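Input record (Table S2, row 369):
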Amino acid sequence: MSIDITIPSQDLLRLIDASLNADYTSVRQISNRLASYAAGSAPEISKRIKLAIRRNGVPLRASGYSESLPTDPKSRSALIEEQAWPVCPIFLNEGLKKTFDSFVSSVKNYDLLLKNGLSGKMNLLMSGPPGTGKTLVAGHIASALGMPLYVVRLDSIISSLLGDTAKNIRSVFDFVPEKNGIIFLDEFDAIAKLRNDQHELGELKRVVNTLIQAIDALDDRAIVIAATNHSELLDRAIWRRFPYRMDFGKPDLELRNHLWNYFLFQDSGDATTISALAKISIDMTGADIESISLSARRIAIINDKRIDTQEIAIECMKASYNEFYINDSEAFNKKDICKLLNQKFLLNQAEILTIIKTSRQTLSTYLKE
Ligand SMILES: Nc1ncnc2c1ncn2[C@@H]1O[C@H](COP(=O)(O)OP(=O)(O)O)[C@@H](O)[C@H]1O
Ligand SMILES: [Mg+2]
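Output record (adenosine-5'-diphosphate complex):
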């Protein structure tokens, strides 16, 4: 079936131009715009456009086109990589969402802020435990701004000779803003970890100083995002270069509700079941919830069965509560599990019944004992 959508002629011309020039960043930007034009009147087409961009997001290089990215002169390995915009949504708590929005709108309204003397460096530092969505957030910022995201490969930059390190840093910091891209220093603690490596302290200091100089020398409009699992390892001097901060923690109860609903039930879960799983998954990260969910869905598909929430609940309990340990299904004691769910994880009876296969009556007896 063919559906007509309206495309501004400017965009159509730019799209043709960009395609013929193998300028895939622009192809993606314009196509994204087309997808939003179509979202209202032809949501199906909008979805298909997005799918097409997504499908072709990563293998651009495989298609024979390679943008000449800066490389280390000795090892010839790339110093940066373009990271495709994410397809997975990001779930953030209120505070982080606020910083995210304020960062994005500050970039978008840069000129207005500048005119009123309120501009500043657009540098954002994210810190927090692994698997909480920092890398994902960087992708979402890039996509919200319609800019390519270049991940700096800190290993390639530093493993080279000292003189080359400075050169490498400079070439990255020259290249990315020229492409109107975002510099993303992911796993930024790698720099600080050099301290324990064979590298000398003096050498580390020089690397850090070169980085600081490079950040300072950037145009105020340039965007630098850094992410680290160990913010305490970062130099104070680096710290100060980042006026915007996002400190990630493990997801709270509300966030875990969203994560389960999305990853396990593709947004159509039953509220009681979701709430039960959210309560049990204390201390789990978004990445943990994603991996348990995907594996449960795979098992369900292969065996042509429904998702086994009881199995998932037990897995979460094991992860969240050390004292809780079940060897095998033989030793599985439903009564203990129900009591634990009620007393330790504060599930009400309705919540327990959605995930544990037992009758209302039996459950009442268990809980009274
Ligand atoms: N807050 C979140 N919202 C949505 N997905 C998340 C979230 N946290 C983690 N994930 C999932 O876990 C994956 C790993 O997260 P990632 O961004 O790499 O974490 P980090 O960079 O903090 O180690 C993501 O790609 C996403 O699928
Ligand atoms: Mg990461």
